[in-house]
Amino acid sequence: MNKFNSSKKIIIIWDFDGAIGQINSTLPYNFNFESLEKEISNVEYILDKLDEYNIKTCFAITGFSAENGKFPYVFPDLIKKISDRGHEIASHSWRHEWIPLFTNDQINKSLKRSKMSLEKALNFSKEVVGFVPPHNRPMTWLMKGAISLGDRGIFPFFKLGDTSQLIKLLLINNYKWVRISHNNIFQKFNFLKRNITGKIYKYKNIFILENHYTGFDDRVIKHILETNHSTYTISAHPLMLSLENKIESKINFENFLKKITESNQQIEFILPSNLLL
Ligand SMILES: [Zn+2]
Questions:
Q1: CA–CA separation, 158 vs 180, rounded Å?
Q2: Mean pLDDT, to the nearest integer, of 159-163?
Q3: pLDDT of residue 152
Q4: What's the pLDDT tens digit per position in 239-249?
Q5: Looking at residue 160, which CATH number applies to its domain?
Q6: Are 118 and 128 in contact (CB under 8 A)?
Q7: For the residues 92-112, what does the mean pLDDT come to?
Q8: Residue 14, SS3?
Q9: pTM here?
């Protein structure tokens, strides 16, 4: 990125889980058909809202959701529609795995198959080059001094408990960017004043979108307007737009779009894959 280019860039990434994601989320026995319908109708709402502002974003989608089958358990046509309206499609794994608990071979297959099924849903018109790990795991990245005890599968007992291992597999499968969550010990204790929406940098042959911010509240609006970082990464879940009084609520999302676009600052919304240009 050109640091002399003064415009600020915002990347929005939606974690679009689908039915398989809901089944494999932290409360796997809470499947709810209404939530599934709500998630999809919120995606339609997001697409219309973003069109109003002419903003393009990224949707990270579980690969299984791109398979042929019955709507709304799978939705390849919707995935194609999202892409046709100018948004980027990234992989959110094959079936929303808690990565540290799986073997190398399983995650390798998840990366391969999700990329393939999503690209097939796009009629192979676009390549899927981004990966958004489900549950934001692993959060441990030893090389960066980041250790998380919340990973359930802890390195070295679980190989994929360390982000370096995940990155190896991403490189093998031709992914070009990944969203990573971790706190090193300094950030944990807030010794470093940092970009709360994370930094973006190249590591080996892949772009790391680090420590994104979840949601659209006043805190992040203020952060974007009052600081001068080159990039800001924000994540959200379509389903969460329906929850009032949450950071990801619809009211906050609309307020975010309005305040950011009405500010007189040079702010641009970009896709993660634009980083590769
Ligand atoms: Zn997810």
A1: 18
A2: 91
A3: 76
A4: 999 998 889 99
A5: 3.20.20.370
A6: yes
A7: 96
A8: strand
A9: 0.94
Residue 235 lies in a domain: yes
CA of 216 to the centre of ligand 1 (A): 18
- Ligand 1 centroid to residue 98 C-alpha, Å: 10
From 174, 200, 73, 41, select the one nearest 114 (Cα to Cα). Answer: 174
State mean pLDDT over 221-250: 93
In a 3-state reduction of DSSP, which class is residue 26? coil
Q: What's the gap in Å between 262 CA and the centre of ligand 1?
A: 31
CA of 156 to the centre of ligand 1 (A): 25
Which of 152, 118, 147, 119 shows the shortest CA–CA distance to 135? 152
How far is ligand 1, taken at its centre, from the CA of residue 174, in Å?
Answer: 21
In a domain, 68, yes or no: yes
Is the residue at 2 inside a domain? no
* CA 8 – ligand 1 centroid, Å: 27
Position 120 scores a pLDDT of 98
**Gap from CA of 59 to ligand 1 centroid (Å):** 11
Model confidence over 39-49: pLDDT tens digits? 999 999 999 99
Give distance in angstroms: CA of 96 to centre of ligand 1.
6
Distances (CA, A) of 23 to 141, 217, 260: 27, 28, 35
Domain that holds residue 113: 8-276
What is the spatial distance between Cα 22 and Cα 151, in angstroms, rounded to a whole number? 19
> Identity (one letter) of the amino acid at 188?
K
Confidence of residue 2 (pLDDT cuts 50, 70, 90): very low
Q: How far is the centre of ligand 1, averaged over its atoms, from the C-alpha of 165 (Å)?
A: 20
Cα of 134 vs centre of ligand 1, distance in Å, is 5
CA atoms in the 13 A half-sphere facing the CB of 116: 7
The verdict on residue 138 lying in a domain is yes
Q: How many domains does the chain have?
A: 1
The CB-side HSE value for 120 (13 A sphere, CA atoms) comes to: 14
